[in-house]
Design goal:
By secondary structure, the protein is α/β, with parallel strands linked by helices. The chain has a single domain, classed as NAD(P)-binding Rossmann-like Domain (Rossmann fold). Helices cover 47% and strands 14% of the residues. The protein contains nine helices and seven strands. Strands 3-2-1-4-5-6-7 form a seven-stranded parallel β-sheet, with helices on both faces.
């Protein structure tokens, strides 16, 4: 089956790399056009060179409501409408609660949760103006459900995204707008490269993934394609785990691992 998204227009935040870029590629393969927003003008230029006229780009910081609104407007200006919103901009940090700074906490919450709120708000407003529905897909995380040591801000933000997805689905269903989430486990991306490069950390992840491997960006993009397509026309308010069944086990014990690493130095 091909052409599942023919004629549709997507806005993808965090669209210049990692999961967001892979989703954009998959959508373009299925006939969509996409506006990619990201903070990296360099990565946006690379994505544009790769994907051509099927995409437009917009430099935007999801922490700014005005810039999010401008990105949605840019999609309308370039392609005439918005049918799909994919909210994948995010970042993480490691800090035990007793050492977490307010600046670190605010940065993670602002990007990973408030940025999703701004994106839903302005994507949905455009879909309401069009009057023929749409779908919004929020990239949450395994950490929406599974706690991780040293990741209090990230876990809190992603749990918030999961609940925000449910509330938005409840409110927007009357406008034929579906709102769904995806909760990836460990996926090899530039965002996870630092942790994954530590052998003990990677081993801790793989030990707790029943399917025995890290995910790929294609794994997440395939789920995002399904949720955006008519095949998922009665799916809303749900956050789909795409994690190799990692949710059935536990998260790596970061404090223990880092402690053991310090002892061997």
């Amino acid at each position: 089956m091909s052409g599942r998204l023919d004629g549709r227009v997507a806005v993808v935040t965090g669209g210049a790399s990692g999961i967001g870029l892979e989703i954009a590629k998959r959508y373009v393969e299925e006939g969509a056009r996409a506006l990619l927003s990201d903070m990296s003008a360099e990565n946006l230029a690379k994505a544009k060179a790769e994907l051509g006229d099927a995409v437009a780009t917009c430099t935007a910081d999801v922490r700014s409501e005005g810039e999010v609104e401008q990105a949605v407007a840019a999609a309308v200006e370039q392609f005439g409408r918005v049918d799909i919103g994919v909210n994948s901009a995010g970042l993480g940090t490691y800090a035990p609660i007793v050492d977490q700074t307010s600046e670190q906490w605010s940065q993670i919450l602002d990007v990973c949760l408030t940025g999703v709120f701004y994106s839903i708000k302005h994507e949905a407003r455009q879909m309401q103006r069009q009057g023929d529905g749409g779908v919004i897909i929020n990239i949450a995380s395994l950490n929406a459900f599974q706690p991780a040591e040293g990741m209090s801000a990230y876990c809190t933000s992603k749990a918030g995204v999961e609940m925000l997805t449910r509330v938005a689905a409840m409110e927007l269903g009357r406008d034929a707008i579906r709102v769904c989430g995806i909760a990836p486990g460990l996926v090899d991306t530039p965002l996870t490269a630092g942790l994954s490069a530590i052998p003990a950390i990677r081993a801790g992840y793989l030990e707790n993934i029943p399917l025995g491997r890290a995910g790929t960006t294609a794994d997440i993009a395939n789920a995002a394609l399904f949720l955006a397509s008519d095949e998922a026309s009665w799916v809303s308010g749900e956050t789909m785990s795409v994690d190799g069944a990692a949710r059935t086990k536990r998260y790596p014990e970061f404090m223990k691992i880092f402690g053991e690493m310090a002892e061997t130095e």
